[in-house]
Amino acid sequence: MEQYIIKGGSPLAGEVEIGGAKNAALGILAASVMTKDPVIIENLPDVRDTAVLIQAMESIGTRVERIDRHTVKVIAAGINSYSIEDGYIKKIRASYYMLGALLGRFKKAEVALPGGCNIGSRPIDQHLKGFRALGAKVEVSRGMISAESENLVGNHIYMDVVTVGATINVMLAATLANGKTIIENAAKEPHVVDVANFLNSMGANIKGAGTDVIRIKGVEELHGSTYSIIPDQIEAGTFMFAAAITKGDIMIKNVIPKHLESISAKLIEIGCEIEEFDDCLRVVATKRLASTHVKTLPYPGFPTDMQPQITTTLALSEGTSIVTESIFENRFKYVGELQRMGANIKVEGNTAIIEGVDSFSGAGISAPDLRAGAALVLAALVADGFTIIDDIRFIERGYEDFPEKLTALGACMEKAESERDIQKFKLKVG
Ligand code: UD1
Questions:
Q1: Which residue CA neighbors atom 29 of ligand 1 most closely?
Q2: Minimum-distance ligand 1 atom for the alpha carbon of 124
Q3: 340 and 423: one domain?
Q4: CA distance 372 to 397
Q5: Which domain range does residue 316 map to?
Q6: Which of 167, 299, 327, 399 to mutate to test the pocket of ligand 1 (most atoms within 8 A of CB)?
Q7: Nearest partner of 38 among 174, 173, 177, 222, judged by Cα
Q8: What is the model's pLDDT at position 114?
Q9: How far is 370 from 231, CA to CA, in rounded Å?
Q10: What is the pLDDT of residue 118?
Q11: What's the confidence (pLDDT) of residue 332?
Q12: Given this model, what pLDDT does residue 88 score?
C-alpha cells in the first residue's frame, strides 16, 4: 500500500504551478463526446479521476489520444454503446456527467450509480428531475441509472438546492434539446462557467453561466474545438493554506485570483499577507495566525472543498474558531485523525469548535477522502517528528504530483511503498 512519509517542520517557500481544474475537466471530458468531430482539451490535470473518466469514455468506443501529459484529443465518432458499466466508474462522482452528455447526443444513456468521496449522502434527485423535465424517461435499477427520450425538449427547471453536478448535467443534455431551457437557482462555480464556455466553443448557445439563471437555446449539433481548462481553484487554495500553516512564503502561479477571493479574504483575516498579480498570488505568513468563524457555502462563498484545509490551519491558530459545514453533512471525519496529532476540536453536528493548540505531533493516520487527505498532509508538514499517511489513493484522485510540488517548496516528504522505504527515509533525513 502506498503511503506518504512526512517529516514536519520546514516552512514552505518558492513557486508552485497550479494545474487545470479537476472538476471542470470532468465536465469538459464528458462534454467532449457530444460531437463526432475531434476535440482537443488542453491543461487537463493528470490525476486519477480524469484517468478513470477517460477509461469509461474509451469503454464505449471513444478514442482518446494523449498528445502530451496535459493535452488529449478526443474522437467520439465511433461510440458504439450508451451504457457505462465499467467497475471503475462507480469510484468517481462525475461519472454521472456521461448521462447528460450521452442523453444529449444520442437521446439514450445508461451509467452505473456514481461513487466519489464518502462525505455524506449525495443524492442525485436534481439531476434526475432535470432530465425528466427535458422529457426523458429516467429509471434507477440494479445499480444503474438509465435515461431515454424520443425527443428532448427544453423546459424551465428550478433547482431545489444549489448543485454543481445537476447544473452541469442538465446543461449538457439541454444543449442538444429542442428549444429553450432555463435553469434557475443554478450553481455559479467557476467550473460550471468553464463547462459552459467549452460547450459554447463547440457551437452551443448557453448564456448566464456564472449567474443563478442559465439560459440554453438547444442546437442541432456540436462541432470540434480546442479548449484550455481553467486553473484549479482548490489545488491553488490548498497551496495557499500550505503557506499559511507552515509560516511560509509561496508564489502560486497560473491561477485566477478572482476565483480565490473567499479563500484570500479568510487568510488575510487570520493574519496572512497576500499579494495579488494578474495570474498569480503570493501568500506569506510570518506569525502565529488568529482564529475566525467560517461557513462553507456555494460559490462565491467559502468552498466546502477547502473546509478541511482551513479547519486544520485553525487548529494551530490562537484562540477559538468555529467552522460550519453547510454543503455536506459528513465532512468532519478527518477530525479524529487530527486529534491523534494533538488537535483540540469538538464536532457537534455540522459544526467544528476548534481550540487552537501550539503544535501537532507526528502520528500514523489515514486519509478519509480527497480534500481531508490533503489537509492531513498540511498538518503533517508542521507536526513534530514523522507522520505516515495511509490511503493516499484518495489524495491522488485530485492532486497531480502533490509530493513533488511540496518537496520543491522545501517539504520533507516521500511516497513510500513499504516499511523499508519508510526506514530508509527516516535514516536519510535523520
Ligand atoms: C461537486 C464537486 C465537489 C464539491 C461540490 C460542492 C465535482 C466532481 N465534485 O460535487 O468536489 O465538493 O461540488 O462544491 O465537481 N444535492 C442534492 N441533490 C442533487 C445533487 C446535489 O440534494 O441531485 C445536494 C448535495 O447533497 C449537497 C449539495 O446539493 O448537499 C451540493 O452538491 P453538488 O454541488 O451537486 O456536489 P457535487 O456535484 O456532487
A1: 163
A2: 23
A3: yes
A4: 12
A5: 3-16+288-429
A6: 327
A7: 222
A8: 74
A9: 18
A10: 59
A11: 96
A12: 65
Q: Please state, in angstroms and rounded to a whole number, the distance separating the CA atoms of residues 71 and 65.
A: 9
Q: Domain check: are 123 and 154 in the same one?
A: yes
CB 201 within 8 A of CB 15: no
Q: Are residues 293 and 383 in the same domain?
A: yes
d(CA 228, CA 233): 15
Same domain, 406 and 349: yes
Q: Which residues line ligand 1 (CB under 6 A)?
A: 23, 26, 93-94, 122-127, 161, 163-166, 187, 304-305, 327-328
Give, using CA atoms, the residue closest to atom 15 of ligand 1.
23
Last residue of a domain, one of 228, 249, 273: 228
pLDDT given for residue 120 in this prediction: 56
Point out the residues of the chain with pLDDT beneath 70. 86, 88, 115-121
Distance from C-alpha of 346 to C-alpha of 409, rounded to nearest angstrom = 32
Q: Examine the domain organization and report whether 12 and 86 are in the same domain.
A: no
Phi, then psi, of 242 in degrees rounded to 5: -65, -40
Do 218 and 351 belong together in one domain?
no
Strand partners, 250: 14, 283
Nearest CA residue ID for atom 35, ligand 1: 163
* Domains in the chain, number: 2
272 labelled catalytic: no
Question: What global pTM score does this model have?
Answer: 0.96
